[in-house]
Amino acid sequence: MERIDAVVVGGGLGGLTCAYCLAQAGVQVLILERGDHPGSKNVTGGRIYLRPLRPYLPELWDAAPLERAVTKEVITMMGEGSSCTVEFTSDRFLEGPAHSYTILRSRFDKWLGERVMEKGGFVVPQRRVTDLMREDGQIVGVVSEGEEIPAQVVIAADGALSLMAEQAGLRKPLSPRNAAVALKEVIKLAPEVIEERFGLAPGEGAARLFFGTITQGTFGGGFLYTNQETLSLGLVLGIESLLQGETSAETHQIFEAFKGRKEIAHLIQGGELVEYSAHLIPEGGNRSVPKPYGDGILVVGDAAGLALNMGITVRGMEFAMASGYMAAQTVKKAKEKGDFSAATLAHYQTLLKGSFVLQDMETFRNSLEVLENPRMATVYPQRLCKIMEEAFWIGDGPKERISSTVWKGVREGVFSLAALKDLWRLRRI
Amino acid sequence: MEPADKLSLDVFKNDQESHIIINQEICRACELKPCLSICPAGLYSVSEETGEVLIEYAGCLECGSCRVTCPHGALAWNYPRGGFGVQYRYG
């Protein structure tokens, strides 16, 4: 049977980037996307960091439909009925090409799909892939809606659950330990209101993170990103932590309670809810799939567990795009050799290891174990708020010295053996 | 705001059959039933009459958290057929 060079399962950032690079190099490539268009099944927080990607994809960004260049980083520690916010701005974020942008995936991925078509790749929407085709142990194509599509190589770009990588035996099903669920609302608001409310110039954006009591004892946190004319408001909850924790609330109830906090309510006031979404985040202790290739298959992006939680920054999209690029380089090489066996495709792993993708994953290997300690997400933010509250409070009696208040708070809440250990562990982040 | 009200704002193209099949025998023995609390769309419930676990698959956001959470493998879980299910306009 006639085989095309490469078939990509899933029109997300990893798959689209891979197809874009392959099409550009004249390799036959077909993307099968189960939604109405690339992006229609995709969700991000989100913000994308462009600098790591520019060396690989320098030409893509000027016309890309990004939302706002992030110039303001805000972190809020939430206690019960209190909160403490740190805001950081830097001119450096705007120097040269901007550092990071907020992004909405339905729009962006659709656009990238059009770029793939422009280069001569085929994007076929409304096609779900159910099975891999095999011949003598080698993967030789996919089955979509009952139709066999033979190919020299399959690129599994089917997201965090990656049923394809699972079928290929390259990974196990995601476990509660290795996954977080994100709930998100997109809220429409006039650009001028966004700019005034968040203190931004036109085109500039804010990224806000929220930690503390809002997750009801669960590892995770809230986020808010300003898009051009919408806000992305969301909550991430670690699944294992949620199952083992004390809260009996349903995920959407935890989200509603977060949204109801006055710190959030005033930010979204007057906005119109236009979309509700949910998505899984692979959080394998910042460990990716150990072998993201096999005979006739490569695994990219979330499907390969390439996502990184570094505490104050959470990244996935750059890894997806860079891994897509590297998968394409590997396929080109395999095509030249006329060999798509695992031995040749192992080049992909070498490229990942030589780049920021696996190097960053390695550097931050242990950071998640530190961050998912429930005290980090809940006890310390609350304790900090308590100390601030006492420091600012003027009661009816004489007030003790600020230093005494702070010292007492630190001693009671933070100065324990457990806390000291946590502090020591912070060096791993 | 209830999840159902939020889902009414999303674009869905519904298939005739559920893409998630529940094995009731397994669910009967499951005390925890974490599917009930994990689903961001609140689609899982237990029938008062039969005790069966029910899913309103038409509102599925396709996150897969139920697949990850189900402790006993009671869900035959797939994505909706091509062209069906939620179609995000923002994402």
Can you tag this structure with a few keywords?
heterodimer; A: 429 residues; alpha/beta; FAD/NAD(P)-binding domain; D-Amino Acid Oxidase, Chain A, domain 2; 3 domains; eight-stranded mixed β-sheet; seven-stranded mixed β-sheet; 19 strands; 34% helix; elongated; B: 91 residues; alpha+beta; Alpha-Beta Plaits; two-stranded antiparallel sheet; two-stranded antiparallel ribbon; 4 helices; 6 strands; globular
Describe this structure in words.
The complex is a heterodimer of chains A (429) and B (91). Chain A is of the alpha/beta class. Chain A has 3 domains: 4-66 and 103-171 and 289-353, FAD/NAD(P)-binding domain; 177-282, D-Amino Acid Oxidase, Chain A, domain 2, CATH 3.30.9; 369-428, no CATH class. Helix content of chain A is 34%, strand content 27%. In chain A, the strands form 4 sheets. In chain A, strands 1, 2, 7, 8, 9, 10, 16 and 17 form an 8-stranded mixed beta sheet that branches. A 7-stranded mixed beta sheet of chain A has the order 5-4-12-13-14-11-15. Chain A has a two-stranded antiparallel ribbon with strand order 3-6. In chain A, α1 packs parallel to α2 (105-118) and α8 runs antiparallel to α10. The radius of gyration of chain A is 23 Å and the shape is elongated. Chain A starts with a strand and ends with a helix. Chain B has 91 residues and is of the alpha+beta class. Chain B is built from 4 helices and 6 strands; from the N terminus they run αββααββαββ. A two-stranded antiparallel ribbon of chain B has the order 1-6. Chain B has a two-stranded antiparallel ribbon with strand order 2-5. In chain B, β3 (44-46) and β4 form a beta hairpin. The radius of gyration of chain B is 13 Å and the shape is globular. The mean pLDDT of chain B is 96. At the A-B interface, α2, β11, α5, α6 and β15 of A face α1, α3, α4 and β6 of B.
